[in-house]
Structure formats: structure tokens, C-alpha cells
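re: ur question from earlier - yeah i can do the single chain one, its not a big deal. heres the input i used so u can compare w yours
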Amino acid sequence: MPPPPSGSSQVSLETIKSYAVSPSGQVDVIRKIRSYALVCTLSSILFTALAYGRGDVKEIITQDESLWLAKNQSRIVLAVETSYAPFVFIDSSGQPAGLAHDYVLMLESKLGAHFAQRRFSSLDDIFVKVRAGEVQIVNAVTKTSSRLTFLNMTESFISVPNVIIVRKDRSGPMREENLSGLTVSLVKSYAVTENLTNKGLGLKPEFVPDDRTALLNVSFGRSDAAVIDLATASYLITQNGIANLRVAGEVAFDIQLSMAAPKDEPILFSILQKGLGAITETERQEIHKRWINTSSQSLLTDQRFWIIVGGAIIVVARMLTGRQCKIACQLRVGFNS
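and the output i got, formated as C-alpha cells:
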């Protein structure tokens, strides 16, 4: 069958029919259909992948914010505090880790971004660099009036009580007012430090660079007490094997950890807030499970419970047996008399 005229821009219905009934035409049409279908399929897969990869970001932040993030991501620096376990610290392999740091990783995944990191030994050093314009993201910080003068802070994503730590040889419960006249180790630049020192409680503050130093000061008798959050206290006491400390009570100021950006980075702050808001409750629970032990063993399966119960039963049985013997002896004496 002759091919269509080379100069023709249209193909007649008859020509199409003739190709369809011709063996060679059928093969040619089938090949073209297969090629077209293959191209369509590959294109569909490509566009679907692209849409899936960027769809979450489009839903989380606006197009303008997405463009801003793409343009500015390379200059954004995330401050990593190296000794704020279990929230942010450097693990045994030399990598950043912790409950709050896992939120950063999740946020980066949601945004399709990765921020450059810079490590700091204290929160005070981080604030110095924020003011100097060298740090754009601060993680795991609590809102205070002084911090809000130079930082915008997201809604809190971690809440933990601050507690009073004393040596075990100091008995009794304690509250804030009981700190009056005592030397109390407080971590420099912490929100609870600012809160307690502004209350006029009459305590003698001993400012220290980190939580570990605060605990060791109490352990070795250099301070009468320390005030730090419960999660950090539990983690450091266990990790460092400090056996002579106990939790004596709580102060009326919990830590509410947020992420923060400098006041002159409003778009970045909006992106951080929306990124945190996109983390689902299930994802939050998974993060917390990695760092907070929520498992509880039933008393009925605890061997120590049954040892205690067994011992109590033996004691009671002996008491009853002794009482019964005493009664029997009294009755015997009565009969004999």
C-alpha cells in the first residue's frame, strides 16, 4: 500500500482504514501505539513522582515561602547544643542526637530541606552568635521575656517539669521557698534560671555552664541544690552513675521547648512553625518512644512483687500460728485447772 503523500498535513479516513486492515500497517500502528503508551506511562510516573516529592512542601508552606527557602537555604545555620542530653547532644559516634534533634530531622524531611549545622557547648554561646547574625535556627529553647526581644519562637513541642535536685542525706520534700539561703547551681542562660533569680527567693545562685556541672556540684557538696529539668536530670544521673542524688520537688516553672529564629527572619520563622505543625501525632509519639521509656511491667509478672507477697504471707502465717498456739495453750491450762 502506498504511503500518504509527503506534503499532506492530514490523513484521510480511508488511509487509516487501509493501514488498519493491512498486515504491515497493523504492525506499524501497534508499534506506534506501544511507543505512545510507553511515553505516556513514563511521563505519568515522572510527574507523579515530582508531585509526590514536592506536594507536602506545597501544602505545608506557600509558594513564596518555598521559593524563599530554596534561595536562602544555603545560608541558614542551625545551632546544635552539644551537651543538652537527652534533647540535643553529641552521641558516641560523634553525631548530633536527642529528642529535640529528632524533631529537626523530621521538620527537614517535611520541608525537603537540610540546614547547615554549627556546634556550641552552651546556650549562652548560641545566643551570642544569634545576635551577631551567625545563627538562624535555635532548637530546644523556652520562651522568656528577654529572649523574645531578639527571637521569634514557635509553639512548644516538648514540655518537661523543672525539679530540685539534692543529696540523699538532705531529707524531706522541697519547694521554691525552701531554697532560701541555699547555694543553688543554675545553668547560665536557662529560662528557669532567669525565672528563679527574678523571684527574690533569697537563694544564692551558683551559675554553671551546663547541667552535668550542676549535678556534680551538688554531688560533691559544692552546692546545696540544683534546679534542672527532670528528663535531663534522669538521663545524666544514670549516664554518669551519680548515686547520691535525689529529686526533692518541683519548681513552678516547666520548660516548654520551642524552635526559634531571629526577629529579622520572619519568613524563616513562619516556615519553622508550619513545618512543626505538619508533624503528626503518630510521628511525635514515635520520636518520644525513642527517648522516653514508657513501658511498664505489670506487678503480676514482676518476680520482686511475688517475693514481697510471699514474705508477707509467711510473716502473717507465723503470726497467726503463734496466736493460735497461744490460744491453745491458754485453753489447755484452763481445762487442767
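Residues 162 and 229 are 4 Å apart (CA to CA). not sure if urs matches, ping me
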